[in-house]
């Protein structure tokens, strides 16, 4: 106990983590926490459940953008025209018409009576107001002009940033003290309540709208679940909005035109707002810059969807720092090696970040991140500082141990940098891929060094991207050749499938690149790709001067041989029977049964064509005929095999494999193989 009392690093570590509890409760580092929310939300948009939904179908934006004002030839929008838009929207069946245009000063043209009449006759309108705060205290609501305020319901749109340094809007705060005021509910809440025909209430930490219950955090914040936008779309109004120009005058529309507009707004909440750059009504959010009316739409969508983002309770949030504190103290007491301790602390921090990210992305559960991560960082630095002398002794022991295997200079570098350098490797089943450009010497002839470099980058970059997208590891580039493998450094039970999928994608990518290469004045590139699956040795291997993470073994050599044979058989892609058998559902054409150079054991070679769902009936029928012909050939029934291959060659005269077998059959007819012929063809070259 006395030793523990002298561990000031542990005492201060406890202080750091305990301070994280009030820090996250009062949001002392809101700016940093918002950055983690932004990161998590981007992942939620990409990988979360329901990521395909753009916006609640109940909402549509009627916006005034640059194109609108160019046609309108005036700025801002006159209130008589706002009245016309409101009247026309009502006539087209809009259930709620929410106008996000602050009109707290009388019209310069005396048009307030016109607008007031339109609002009153529509009866389902909502005007924007502003809540006023001083030193964090509510002082009043700045409503529309008296005439407009009498004609329509109003609500405030204030969404406040949690940071004093940067205006980032990610949540809507509902102020309980305002709800008793007229117009004291936030604009999005009031619009949702009007749409549902209920009165909003705050009950037990939630916003209640009839049977709809939307969770709030302990500060009555509604976390806005910003929806994804379609590819190529920057603003929500571009995909879920329609120009207000369409609703200025609908008197001259025919029946079909009116029906088309009605389909946009009937029985929906219509948000009328300004999305022009001149309005400067845009704000930073977790998904980038967003116009104010779009934030209202996102908030409204969040409410109608039941508030899918839910902050954990303060009690649950407090458990996190306490749990991580116990973990940090345990690591400090149990681990003496700095590298192991550092990795465990890194794993602790990254593990918590990963947990918080997964819960946010998949389940909409919001855990505080930045506060405990800062506590982990500061605690780790403090612990390392305190144990500096112990670290020196451990480094000396590392030097004595590793000095038996690697030069002292490399040991010294390990000590300085903290790198994890190991000799040797481990054996595991993996899949290796080799690819090579066919006729690269001919292709590169006449190219300047600069053009050749550009060509190689244009080829290697997309190929590497394909391999990475399918969980592959690039081993090395060998000029125009690529070597990659699957199953390491992370174990992958589907390494063979991922490798085959990558190889098929590489072949398709080369077809896509063909026109681009021709347009640049280059010759089209064809690649040969070979794959093999088997037991390989993988790890950091090399010399005292350079090490590389690579694979070695007979299975690797066989993969290289298979790639070199693709040219002889006239195919782009070929795999061994070991890869073929490891990928259920893979449809392939059996190419040959061969002994490759340097190997005594024969191996079957296959040309993958795709998976079951990708292959049409005609291809299946032709494959069946090919395999029947191959069976006749291996049974020594030369005339029948010859007729079968001739028939196939007539259908596909450009397929080299048929001609290869026909040439062999012709040879065997003249010079029959001896007794015990096993159908194996032995390659004499690599």
Automatic annotation (TrEMBL):
Coiled coil: none annotated. It is found in: Cell envelope. The keyword Nucleotide-binding does not apply. GO terms for biological process: cAMP biosynthetic process; intracellular signal transduction. GO terms for cellular component: cell envelope. Its main location: other. Residues 431-563 form the Guanylate cyclase domain. InterPro entries: A/G_cyclase (IPR001054), Adenylyl/Guanylyl_Cyclase_3/4 (IPR050697), CHASE2 (IPR007890), Nucleotide_cyclase (IPR029787). Keywords: Cell membrane, Membrane, Transmembrane, Transmembrane helix. It comes from the Bacteria. The chain crosses the membrane at residues 318-336, 343-361, 367-385. GO terms for molecular function: adenylate cyclase activity. The keyword Membrane applies. Belongs to the adenylyl cyclase class-3 family. This is Adenylate cyclase.
């Amino acid at each position: 106990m006395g030793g523990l009392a002298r561990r000031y690093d542990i005492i201060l570590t406890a202080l750091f983590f305990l301070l994280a509890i009030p820090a996250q409760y009062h949001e002392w580092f809101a700016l940093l926490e918002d950055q983690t929310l932004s990161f998590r939300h981007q992942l939620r948009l990409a990988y979360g459940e329901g990521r395909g939904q753009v916006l609640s179908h109940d909402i549509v934006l009627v916006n005034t953008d640059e194109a609108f004002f160019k046609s309108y030839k005036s700025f801002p929008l006159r209130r008589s025209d706002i009245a016309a838009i409101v009247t026309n929207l009502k006539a087209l069946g809009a259930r709620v018409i929410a106008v996000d245009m602050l009109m707290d000063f009388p019209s310069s043209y005396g048009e307030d009576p016109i607008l007031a009449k339109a609002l009153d006759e529509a009866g389902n309108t909502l005007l924007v107001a502003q809540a006023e705060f001083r030193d964090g205290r509510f002082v009043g609501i700045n409503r529309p002009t008296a005439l407009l305020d009498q004609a329509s319901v109003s609500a405030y749109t204030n969404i406040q940033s949690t940071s004093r340094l940067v205006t980032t809007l990610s949540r809507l705060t509902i102020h309980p003290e305002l709800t008793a005021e007229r117009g004291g509910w936030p604009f999005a809440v009031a619009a949702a309540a009007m749409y549902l025909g209920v009165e909003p209430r705050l009950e037990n930490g939630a916003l209640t709208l009839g049977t709809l219950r939307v969770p709030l955090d302990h500060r009555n914040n509604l976390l806005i679940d910003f929806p994804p936008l379609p590819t190529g779309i920057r603003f929500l109004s571009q995909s879920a909005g329609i120009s207000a120009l369409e609703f200025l005058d609908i008197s001259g529309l025919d029946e079909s035109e009116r029906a088309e507009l009605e389909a946009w707004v009937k029985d929906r909440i219509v948000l009328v707002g300004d999305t022009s750059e001149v309005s400067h009504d845009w704000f930073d959010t977790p998904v980038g810059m967003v116009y104010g009316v779009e934030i209202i739409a996102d908030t409204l969508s969040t409410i109608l969807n039941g508030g899918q983002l839910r902050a954990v309770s303060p009690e649950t949030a407090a458990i996190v720092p306490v749990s991580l504190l116990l973990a940090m103290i345990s690591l400090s007491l149990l681990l003496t090696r700095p590298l192991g301790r550092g990795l465990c602390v890194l794993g602790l921090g990254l593990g918590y970040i990963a947990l918080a990210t997964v819960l946010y992305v998949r389940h909409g559960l919001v855990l505080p991140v930045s506060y405990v991560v800062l506590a982990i960082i500061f605690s780790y630095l403090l612990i390392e500082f305190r144990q500096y002398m112990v670290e020196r002794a451990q480094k000396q022991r590392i030097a004595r141990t590793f000095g038996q295997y690697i030069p002292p200079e490399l040991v010294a570098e390990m000590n300085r940098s903290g790198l994890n350098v190991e000799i040797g490797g481990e054996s595991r089943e993996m899949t290796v891929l080799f690819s090579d450009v066919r006729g690269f010497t001919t292709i590169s002839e006449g190219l300047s060094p600069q053009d050749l470099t550009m060509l190689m980058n244009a080829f290697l970059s997309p190929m590497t991207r394909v391999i990475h997208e399918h969980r592959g590891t690039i081993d090395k580039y060998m000029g125009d050749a690529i070597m990659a493998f699957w199953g390491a450094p992370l174990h992958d039970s589907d390494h063979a499938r991922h490798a085959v999928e990558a190889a098929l994608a590489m072949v398709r990518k080369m077809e896509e690149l063909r026109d681009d290469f021709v347009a640049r004045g280059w010759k089209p590139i064809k690649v040969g790709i070979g794959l093999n699956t088997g037991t390989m040795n993988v790890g950091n291997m090399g010399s005292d001067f350079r090490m590389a993470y690579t694979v070695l073994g007979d299975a690797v050599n066989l993969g290289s041989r298979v790639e070199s044979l693709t040219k002889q058989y006239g195919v782009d892609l070929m795999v061994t029977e070991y890869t073929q058998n490891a990928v259920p559902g893979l449809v392939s054409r059996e190419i040959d049964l061969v002994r490759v150079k340097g190997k005594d054991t024969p191996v079957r070679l296959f040309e993958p064509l795709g998976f079951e769902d990708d292959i049409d009936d005609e291809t299946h029928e032709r494959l069946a005929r090919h395999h029947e012909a191959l069976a006749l050939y291996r049974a020594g029934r030369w005339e029948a095999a010859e007729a079968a291959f001739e028939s196939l060659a007539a259908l596909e005269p450009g397929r080299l494999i048929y001609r290869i077998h026909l040439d062999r059959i012709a040879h065997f007819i003249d010079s029959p193989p001896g007794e015990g012929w096993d159908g194996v063809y032995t390659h004499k070259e690599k």
